[in-house]
Write a structure and sequence with these properties.
Number of strands of chain A: 8
Strand content of chain A: 5-15%
Number of domains of chain A: 2
Order of helices and strands of chain A: EHEHEHEHEHEEHEHHHHHHH
Distance between the termini of chain A: 31 Å
Helix content of chain A: 55-70%
Largest sheet of chain A: 8 strands, mixed
Oligomer: homodimer
Shape of chain A: globular
CATH class of the largest domain in chain A: Alpha Beta
Strand order of the largest sheet of chain A: 3-2-1-4-5-6-7-8
Largest interface: A-B, 93 and 93 residues
Chain lengths: ~280, ~280
């Protein structure tokens, strides 16, 4: 069997590496517009060969679309136009509403499985890929009812075999939740990093004074702008709402601090402490 | 020698545990208003005995004031009134301007060393204390010139012996920088946790969909409200400014997303990526 990885970055690369461990006989072919990514993906053994997009589609039983989400939206209709019968395309994108809408009604819609693994790091590119990234993590499949049963079962078998826990959701719900539990925390982190960099021109002070707490909060500010800008654009409505909620709460927090209303800020923080239960659940995963 | 730990929480407890490793002959006495903290501190071997504040002050060569910062401000003048000659008080608080102002002009001001270790976790209380918390971390001493040479040298010797790197700063500078590199990231995290909890009443969805990125960003929202409310109150002016800068940037980010100005959000994120250099420095520490 041949599997193609279209976009051999952190997620596509990690998916390939974890599958390789379980399926040593499968051949992996890679497609990437970046020569550097091609070289690293080959050198790291993520893929066995670099091929053109057209060749990948003709060769592969399963095509894994792991590019930034704007490219997924552009490529997917053409790939579905050309895909041989019985073959499967899955994506790994962080937004689902638009991509499911784009292919809705396509004669080969059933050959597409919309997949989003709840895993990532602040690093990007094939150099950052590792086989364990997806192990024990949750994965969401959207629009299951629009997908061919065999295509779905193939993808699910692979996801289970690498240790992922499968959940199902409609694309609208998915994008709504993701705005809060993922997209917003990236924006809060990018903005925190930039605020501190803007203010603290004396970098020596940041080095000396920042501790692991700052480091943890601002870690996501290292994430790839090229990956995240299209996510925010595609999930504009939900991200804007989540960001609006966040700004409104920060303003209330600021007012409480400005007016010395310690009881109010104590109340906010005490309620926020409840996130501890959620974190315990995430860290157990 | 006897050292008193006044407030046997995360920081006071960790400081005692690290000193105990280096100075097995020193006796540690603890002062705490919480019976539970007293019991845990004894059970964990953080202190050898629980004593009254008055007794601690009479017994100890060095008194370590490790309570929330509002209590530091309240206790310190009285402690300085009563402290025997030649003895030392140091604090471990996260704000320095107000506490230095309060004791400025006190006849025993010279016996006080204003100390702030750049270390912590989102957990609190003596149960969370561990000997390695302060190892290899930076520590700021404020108002060095107002401190007696012997008191200063004793404190510095202890700090160096447990592996801390000492820096000096005036209290105003300290509080200004801390607002950006520590206090702001706590507020951003508390507010993020609360925004997500408010919105995501369906906790199942958070459990399934949140990943390690969210977990990292929101980790500080578990921090103690009782510790942080007085910090925000004491550093009100700087925290308010930092929070205002952060909100202003988030609004610009939101406008860029709302108006589909991808170039602008790309630009913000690319600039924020520069935080990677700072993080590399922190993680090396």
């Amino acid at each position: 069997m041949i599997i193609s990885i279209i976009g051999v970055g952190l997620l596509g690369g990690s998916f390939a590496l974890s599958l390789k461990k379980k399926y040593p006989l499968v051949k992996f072919v890679g497609v990437d517009t970046s020569i550097v990514n091609q070289k690293i993906a080959l050198a790291k053994g993520i893929v066995d060969e670099i091929v053109s997009l057209e060749d990948a589609l003709q060769m592969a039983e399963l095509n894994v679309l792991a590019t930034p989400v704007d490219t997924i939206g552009k490529l997917l209709p053409t790939l579905l136009d050309q895909i041989p019968e019985g073959r499967t395309i899955m994506d790994l994108g962080s937004t689902k509403e638009l991509v499911c809408e784009i292919v809705d009604g396509h004669p080969n819609r059933k050959q597409f499985v919309a997949v989003h693994p709840m895993a990532g790091t602040e690093n990007s590119g094939p150099g950052a890929a590792f086989a364990e990234l997806l192990t024990d993590k949750n994965v969401i499949i959207c629009g299951r009812d629009k997908t061919d049963r065999d295509c779905l079962m193939l993808v699910e078998a692979f996801l289970r075999d690498i240790g992922m826990k499968i959940h199902y959701m409609n694309p609208q719900e998915h994008d709504h939740h993701l705005a809060y539990v993922s997209h917003l925390s990236h924006i809060s982190s990018f903005a925190l990093g930039l605020t501190v960099l803007d203010k603290e021109r004396d970098e020596k002070a940041i080095f000396d004074m920042a501790s692991t707490g700052f480091s943890s909060t601002v870690r996501l500010a290292k994430s790839s702008p090229q990956m995240w800008a299209p996510i925010f654009a595609q999930n504009q409505k939900n991200v804007s709402k989540a960001l609006g909620d966040y700004i409104a709460l920060l303003k209330k927090f600021k007012t409480a601090i400005d007016q010395g209303e310690t009881e109010i800020s104590l109340d906010y923080m005490t309620k926020a402490n409840d996130i501890g239960r959620i974190l315990a659940g995430i860290e157990k995963k």
